[in-house]
From TrEMBL:
Domain ChlI/MoxR AAA lid: 230-296
The keyword Nucleotide-binding is annotated on this UniProt entry: yes
InterPro entries assigned to the protein according to its UniProt record, in alphabetical order: ATPase_AAA-3 (IPR011703), CbbQ/NirQ/NorQ/GpvN (IPR050764), ChlI/MoxR_AAA_lid (IPR041628), P-loop_NTPase (IPR027417)
Name of this protein: MoxR family ATPase
UniProt GO MF annotations: ATP binding; ATP hydrolysis activity
Superkingdom per UniProt: Bacteria
Keyword Nucleus: no
Organism: Anaerobacillus alkaliphilus
């Protein structure tokens, strides 16, 4: 799946810490190359924190973790101005959101007001405090987590915030063999302490610019729009994906093509990424929820239904 030599180095480096999750690591890097963010919904202890820490360490990024709690305030995330008695001036003390890689742990445990403080950061890569807008460092990547089991004392993420995440996916439990490998690796020392950066932030920024040059044919754009339109007309869906979903899917497909060493997007890129990019952007109707129909199943049905574009020439 990964043919780009530098991205492959990062994946292999992260795999020294996270066992058997190559697809999930690659999806996270695709989101980072696209300038997007990831929402992980999984049970505690499957390696979510270790994966984002390993990614941050592999690219030499400034890493911060925000542990979301019910009493967390927006200023605890974005930062606050503090009066300095020596200079008799207010000085801005940046919050943990001002980092290259941010882990927003258990994001659904904090109040909607604090969740809303992330909206501007996720969409605009900036925060506004005391009436002043401050740009965040580039690259800027947020990986948020939420526990799908414990709902007591949680606040469901509003659709506006879900829509800001490029991907939503799970890590899942390891196999017996993979879990044995985990035990062997951490027996004496945790592998996160043994890995070093294999990519610089400058390299990553260059690659983000190169991703935007990946060619997307008009037929591929039409294919994306057809899939998104089907989410709005599907009989299991109450609310379909917005145009932001179309943009997200196209940007992610450019990154996937880049990671695979291509200069153009193909339909298989769209088919592979659609469940991760669109599943969290649609709301099922009450009958589908009662029947335990998942958004992933709906998106896969749509992919099978929409006609795949065929062209004689794949590139310009």
């Amino acid at each position: 799946m990964v043919k780009h030599p530098l991205i492959n180095k990062v994946v292999e480096n992260v795999e020294k810490v996270v066992v058997g999750k190559r697809k999930e690591v690659t999806l996270s890097l695709i989101a980072m190359l696209s300038g997007g963010h990831v929402l992980l919904e999984d049970v505690p202890g499957v390696g979510k924190t270790m994966m984002v820490r390993a990614i941050a360490k592999s690219i030499g990024a400034n890493f911060k973790r925000i542990q979301f709690t019910p009493d967390l305030l927006p200023s605890d995330v974005t930062g606050v101005s503090v009066y300095d008695q020596k200079t008799m001036e207010f000085k801005f003390r940046p919050g943990p959101i001002m980092a290259n890689v941010v882990l927003a742990d258990e994001i659904n445990r904090t109040s909607p007001k604090t969740q809303a403080a992330l909206l501007e950061a996720l969409e605009e890569a900036s925060v506004t405090t005391d009436g002043e807008t401050r740009q965040l460092e580039k690259p800027f990547f947020v990986m948020a987590t939420q526990n799908p089991i414990e709902y007591g004392g949680t606040y469901p993420l509003p659709e506006a915030q879900l829509d800001r995440f490029l991907f939503k996916f799970k890590i899942g439990y390891p196999s017996h063999q993979e879990e044995m490998e985990v035990l062997n690796r951490v027996e004496k020392q945790h592998p996160i302490e043994q890995i070093d950066a294999v990519l610089s932030l400058e390299d990553l920024l260059d690659m983000q610019r190169e991703v935007t040059e990946v060619y997307v044919d008009e037929s591929i754009k039409s294919y994306i729009i057809s899939i998104v339109n089907e989410t709005r007309d599907h009989n299991s869906v109450y609310l379909g994906a917005s145009p932001r979903g179309s943009i997200a899917l196209m940007k992610a497909a450019q990154s996937l093509a880049y990671v695979q060493g291509r200069e153009y997007v193909i339909p298989d890129d769209i088919k592979f990424l659609a469940p991760y990019a669109l599943g969290h952007r649609i709301i099922l109707n009450s009958d589908s929820k009662f029947a335990n129909v998942s958004t992933k199943v709906v998106v896969n049905e749509i992919i099978q239904r929409v006609k795949i574009p065929v062209r004689k020439e794949a590139v310009r």
